[in-house]
Amino acid sequence: MRSSEPGRQNVPWFDRNFFRSAEPITRIGYGRLGGKASGLVRIRELLQREFDADRFPGVEVYVPKMVVIATDVYDAFMERNGLVETALSACADHPLAEAFQRAELPVEILGDLHALAEEAHTPLAVRSSSLLEDALQRPFAGVYGTKMLPNNSPDADTRFRHLVEAIKYVFASTWFQSAKSYIRATDRASTDEKMAVIVQEVVGRRHDERFYPDLSGVGRSYNFFPAADAKPADGVVNLALGLGKTIVDGGVSWIYTPTRPRAPMPFNSVDDILKLTQLSFWAVNMGRPPAYDPIAETEYLVQADLAAAHYDDTLAAVASTYDANRGRFLPGTARPGPRVVDFAPLLGAAQTPFNEVVRELLALGERALGDAVEIEFAGDLPDRGRGTVRLGFLQLRPMLVSQHEVDIADADLASPDLLLATGRAIGNGAFDSISDIVYVRPESFEARLTPTIASELDRVNRTLVEEQRPYLLLGFGRWGSSDPWLGIPVEWGQIAGARVIVESTLPEMNVELSQGAHFFHNLLSFDVPYLSVAHDPNAAGYIRDIDWAWLDRQAALNETALVRHVRLPHPLFIAVDGRSGRGAVWREPPTREDRSA
Amino acid sequence: MAYKPYNSFSIAQNQFDRAAEVLGLDEATRDLLRSPMREYAFAIPVRMDDGRNRIFRGFRVQHNDARGPCKGGIRFHPLETQDTVRALSMWMTWKCAVADLPLGGAKGGVICDPHNLSEHEQEQICRGWVRQMARNVGPHSDVPAPDVMTTPQHMLWMLDEFEGITGTKMPGFITGKPVGIGGSLGRTEATGYGVIFTVREALKELNVRALDTTASVQGFGNVAQYAIRLFSQLGGTTLCVSCWDQAEGTSYAYRKPDGIDLDELLSITDRFGGIDKAKAADLGYEVLPGDDWLKQDVDILIPAALENQITAENVTDISAGVKIIAEGANGPTTTEADAALRERGVLVIPDFLANAGGVTCSYFEQVQSNMNYYWGKDEVLGKLDSKMTSAYLSVSELVRKRKLYMRDAAYIIAVDRVARACRDRGWV
Q: Residue A513: pLDDT above 90?
C-alpha cells in the first residue's frame, strides 16, 4: 500500500481510541481520500476557520467523527484478491458483490477496523468516496453504495464482521452495472476509478428499535425552480424527518426558500398538504437483526410512518397539526388532528437561528468553492425545546451552474416543428446532434409498472452508451425517485447516456418536479438539461405538451409494451435557456442564424 | 576454565528469578513458578517397519495452568531433554501471559529424528504419545500443537487417536491442524504478521513512518516470509535476507540496495525452500556470507531463524543505525549480546512478545475448534492484530513508566499476571 500520490490531505492517522481521540477526521492508508472525504476535510477546516459559532447561540455545527480508508487499501484489495478481471467482466451485480464478499481485506487495516468495531457501539455509515469524483470535480451522487450499520451487537466480532462486509460492499459497488454506465458517460474508464471509504458515526438518537436524526437536510445555494417571488440565488432547502435517504433518493420532503423560511409550500388545498408532504421516514434498524444480506444496501434500514415518529416523540419538534376549527396548521402536536411534517416549530421559532445557520453554511461553501454549492446535514433537536440544536455537516459539493447564454424567442415556440416546450427547465445549452429518442409509452404507462420500466430503460441505455449515441429521454413522474409511485425509480447509471431528459405529467402521475438530491445533482454535474412538461395547460410553466402522436409515427428501432426507442434520420434541435427556465425540442433545427450549438 | 554446559532450564529460571525479584514475589509463589507443576515422562513402544520393536522416550511438561488450559507444542528431536522441555514450557507460560491469552504453558516432545523414520513409524509415535497422555491432556486441560519437526499431519494422527480413545469428536484437543479439518485460516501468516504488528507499533512510538524504514531479516521460512510481506505492505523496504543453503550446508545473505522482491525470491527456491544462489545472482542480488544479514545499515533487524544468532562476538557488527530488533525466532539473542544491546539503547522486542502471533492464532484455532465454527481470514487476522497490538502497548507502557528494558518489562507483566492468577486461586 505504498503510495506517493499527490493530493493527500494532511489528515492525522487513525487512532484506535476512535471516540476518545480529539481528531474528528482520521485516515487509514497512505493513498487519496476521494471526493466526498476531501469535501468533509474542507468543511472541517471551514468550520474551524470561518464559522463564527458565537453568532448562532443554540446551534452547534460539527463534523461527525469519521475515519477515511484511503484508495491504496482499495488498490491492495483488488490486486491481492485478483478481482480486476471479475470487475471488468460483464458479471451481474449480485455475483460480483458475492465475489467481493469472499475476498479478504488487506491485513494491514484489519487491526484498525477491529479496534474501531470494539470502540464504537453507535450506528456507523459506511460511504463511498470516489477518486474520480475528486478528479472530475463531479459529485458522483448516488452512484456508489452506502451502508448504514446499527453496530449494536454486544459482540465486537459481530460488529467487526458487519463493518468488513459493508466496506467490501462499497468496494463492489464501484463495479456495479449502473456505476460502469455512469463512468462511461464521463468519458473515463472504470479502471481510472479508485475508491476510498468513509466510516462515520451516524447523526441521530436511538428510539427503541429505530435510530435516526430529528431532521436531515439538503441545502442548495442556487434554486433552479424558485417560487414566484423568489430569486434563484435565494437558494432552496429540503428538510425531512429521519435519515437523509428520503431527500437524496427523491422522496417527499419539506422544501423552503432560506430567505423566507416561514412561507408555506404552494399547495392547493389542505388535502394536498396532508397527502403530498412526508408520510414516512428512514431509520437504522436497531431491532431484530434482519435476514443476512451483506450485498443489499438497505440491509439495516427500516422505513416507518409518522405514527412511529409520534410514538418516538420526535414528531412534535418538526410537525404541525391541522386545526379544523381555525382552518389552519398550528406548530407542534399538542392538539389532536392531522399532522404534517413542515418543520414549523423549528423554522418559525425566533429563538433558534437554525435557518440562519443553514444560510451561513451555504454562504461559507460558496466562498470556499467559488461556485453555487449543495450541502447535506443532519441534526438532533433539543428535548422539549430546551438545549442546543446539534447539526452534523455531512457533505459539501459544487453545483456547477452553467453560465452559457441561450435565447429562446417566442417566435421559436410558435414553430410547427416544435415537439415539446416548457417554462420549467433546468440546465442551459443547445444541442443539435441527438437523433435517438427513448420514451415511455403514455398509453401503457401505469405507476405500478415503473420498476419494470426502469429495468427496460437500463437495457436500452446500455446499448446506446455502448454505441456512444446520446439520446433524448422522455417519461412520467419524477425520474430517479426511490418511490415507484412518484416516478420511474432509475438510478443515474441506468439512464446515464441520456443527453437531455424530459419528465412529463399525466393525470394519474401528477407530482412536483424532481428534487432528489442525488439525481438532481447528477443532472447538473453532467450538464444534462431537464425539462418538466405539464400535460395540464393550467399548470405552472405550461407552453406545449409533448407531441406523442408524432413520436408514435416514427419507426421504432426497439420497442416493448412500455418503452419505445426511435432513431430519426435528422437530429433534433434542443435548447434550454437557464435564465428564463424555458426549454424546447424541435423536430428539425430552426433556421435562425443567431442560434449556435 | 571449567566447562559449563548450556542448560536452557537454568536460563529460564534465572530470567524468572529476576522478574520475581522486581515484583517482590513471596517465597511460595517463586517456588511454584520456577518449576513445572506437572511432568510426564514415558515410553512409547513402536513396532518398526522392519518388524523390530523400538522404545521411544516421550515427555510432557505442564508448567502452569493458573490462567487456563495449558498450551504448547510437541517436538520431535533426537537431542530432546527433559530440561529443554521444562524451559520451553515455562517460556510458553510467559508467552501466553504476555499476549494476555487465557492459557497456561506446556511443552512436549519425543526423542526421535523423523528424517530417519517412515510415515507409518511416525504415525505410531504420534498415536503412542497420545495413548500415554490421553488422561492428562484435552481441550479443557492441555492443548498440544506442532513444534520442531512436527507437522499438521502429526496433529491429525494425534487428534484421531485421542478421539478414538475418548469416543468423541473434539477438534479443540489439538491445534495446528490443516485448514478444512479443524485448522484456522491465518495460522500460516500469524507469527510473521505478529512480528510486524509489534514493529509497526514500535515505529509509531519512535515517530518513524514505516514508509521511511529499511530492514534486514535472518531466515527465509514461514515467519520471515510473512514478516517481509507485511513489512513491505506497510511501506517498508527489506534490503537483505539470509537463507540456509541445504546443498552447501551453510547460509547466504541476499541483498539488493533498492529492496528485495519476496515473490521473486520465492520463485527461485529449491525443494527445501532455500533460495537458489545462482539464480539470485542472475536476478541482480548480491550474494553475501550468511552472517552479513546482521551487518546491514538498516533501521530494523528481524532474526527469524534459530536461537543464539546474535552473540557477544557479533553484536558489535550491528550498525549504529539499527533502531529496532524484533525477535521473530525463539531465543535468537544470547544473554551477553542482550546486555550489549540494552547498553546501546536498541529497542529489542523480545521473542516471547514479538513472535506471540503464532500461539495467539493457535488459541483462535482452539476457540474455533471448540465451537466447531470457523471464522473468515479477515476476522482471524483482525483479532490477531488487536491482540498483538494491545500486548505490545501494555509492555511498552510499563517500559515508559518504569524506564525498563523491554524484555524485562515483558517478563514482569507476564510473571505478574500468572502470579496473580495463582494467588487468586488460593494456590499461594
A: no
